[in-house]
Amino acid sequence: MRQRITYFRPHDADWDPNQLAITDTSVHGPALPALKEHKITLTLPELPSELAGLLRDLEQLHLRWATPASYDTLEPFSSRISPGLHVSYTPAKEDHDPRNREKLCTALQAFGRLDCSSPDVFVNFSDGRQPGSPALFFYNELEKLDGFAKRLGPVVCSGPSATECRKQLHELKDAVSLDMSYDSTSEAVKIQALWPLQKREISVPASPKGRTEVGILGRDAPPGMEPHEIGVSGVLTVIGEQKEPSPALFAFASRHRAASGSFTSRFQQPTGLHPTLQLRLSKTAAPLDEDAECAPYAYLTLPKVIFADRYQLADELFLASKNLTAAKYVSEPVDLEAPAYTTKPWGSNVLLQLAPPKDGAEAEEWTAEVPLHLRYLKPTPTGKEEAGIPYPAVFWACEGDKDTAYTVSPFDRATLGYDGLFEPGTTFWHVSPKPEAGGRLINNISVPVVTEGASQWVGIGTAVAVVLGFAWVLLTLVGGYAKSGHGAVAAKKEDEDKKEK
């Protein structure tokens, strides 16, 4: 097992490396403003046998979680996803055993009660994506990691380090993101947790099971740094191997960068059954110079209660009226008629290219509108149901060199869902989300539904309407037949036959 704990401070934060206390069992230092990342790399033999067996049946597995609470961050930790739990995976080739999917769903219950047992819940995630992207995707709302840490403790924490292990798991309650990745090529599991920018003490104990590296870093500009790179400097140390911190100064290509400005997300009022999501951005200019090909995008993660109509989003004139350029991707299947309680997939993903003002001027802000549609929900006593729609990820995607070695970055983050829809080498400049109220990156919407008391009359009313409609049609036909004279002609012909006889 290898551990790496990084404290990343703002460039204007003062601190003295000589204040670090480094021993054979720990690293301690004074409090300083910093965000914290904890990364753990494990091999399959180091995992519980049941979990290792599950992973051996998969080609790749990626779990991504983000908090619904607003938080501050720094480059190179700029990447964003919608709040909630995102699960993507690819089964082993030619593996069609449903028991493996059931094992995965059972393992995911560590995060809470997730409805993932049906194969139809997962969305086919491969169409239109780069080779090597996961094949299946699942999303579920998840507020916090408290329950996950509590359930995981008895499984992974044992032996002399059990107390420290449980303490580290308990700290997940304050984390803002968590990544867990596995691929069959390396047969390694990588776990990354991130804590937000705030004042915190430097305190890292040694791991009795492996190597523990500690870094206190900040932004810098090493000589010869390329425009697409990020430079950092600071000190590094390995607990138990070094008595003094080693100075560090290096640069690396970063897949995710921070764009200037921010954005808000809200539903226009009144919402009705066809709400409009309004995205308001504070900047209009691209993050790079005019020679670079950059465009703004919004990647939406929509639970099954709400969806986007792909046919409506194919109308270019309609899109232009909403400051949208195109719907680059809509996951499938999306049933446009089914109510939420009969819809099997968890929901859908939509990638929209936004249309900023064409004059290129630095406006105060600009707005894009996304037309959406609510599904019918089960009746409730109040006639209303509350639903939470997570903020989208909003970013500028800029073309770059396909051969850029992002994997050299010690803080690289990939397989976030939207990155597989772009060419290799694309740089994502993330616009920071700004909550409308309450510090939460969730849009709450009130969905009108039938009240429980009235729902029993719906069937009766429908039957009565059908009967009355059928009677009306029948009477109309009879009346029309009589008025046309067919009855009089028949009677006259009968009289003439009698006279001839």
TrEMBL record:
Membrane disposition: Single-pass membrane protein; Single-pass type III membrane protein
Transmembrane segments: 457-482
Full protein name: Protein PBN1
Main location: endoplasmic reticulum
Keywords, comma-separated and alphabetical: Endoplasmic reticulum, Glycoprotein, GPI-anchor biosynthesis, Membrane, Transmembrane, Transmembrane helix
Family note: Belongs to the PIGX family.
Single GO molecular function: mannosyltransferase activity
SMART domains per the UniProt record, alphabetical: PIG-X
Pfam family, one: PIG-X
Pathway field: Glycolipid biosynthesis; glycosylphosphatidylinositol-anchor biosynthesis
Location within or outside the cell: Endoplasmic reticulum membrane
Annotated organism of origin: Hypocrea jecorina (strain QM6a)
Function: Required for proper folding and/or the stability of a subset of proteins in the endoplasmic reticulum. Component of glycosylphosphatidylinositol-mannosyltransferase 1 which transfers the first of the 4 mannoses in the GPI-anchor precursors during GPI-anchor biosynthesis. Probably acts by stabilizing the mannosyltransferase GPI14.
Top-level taxon in the UniProt lineage: Eukaryota
GO biological process, one term: GPI anchor biosynthetic process
Signal peptide: none
An annotated GO cellular component: glycosylphosphatidylinositol-mannosyltransferase I complex
